Amino acid sequence: MTTPLHQLKAEFFKTLGHPVRIRVLELLSEREHTVAEMLPEVNVEASNLSQQLAVLRRAGLVTAQREGSNVRYALVSPKVAELLVVARGILTSVLSGQAGLLTDMHAQYPQEQVVPRRRRAG
Q1: Which residues form the signal peptide (predicted)?
Q2: What is the 3-state secondary structure of the chain?
Q3: What is the pLDDT of residue 49?
């Protein structure tokens, strides 16, 4: 029995559902990197970065090529970089829409001040 496409897509997006993995893919969208080159950019421990790279490799999104004592990582396809650009465009539209709603609300109710909710201790 084959896995339905919608389930495969959900698993794909779960793979993308980690901030470190997204940052790694963004870096690799620019050029190939070694772990040492990525560490200062992702601001996590080397072991955490290695784990996230392993997840991306298992998902087939990045490749690894050994060069002496270093491993150089690259995107498997430029389509991964395109996906990140599309996601950025979607987020920009969503956030712009939300900013527009906030502006409209302030214009409609200038006497009310919108204050962010504070989280309760507990």
Answers
A1: none
A2: CCCCHHHHHHHHHHHCCCHHHHHHHHHHHHCCEEHHHHHHHHCCCHHHHHHHHHHHHHCCCEEEEEECCEEEEEECCHHHHHHHHHHHHHHHHHHHHHHHHHHHHHHHCCCCCCCCCCCCCC
A3: 96
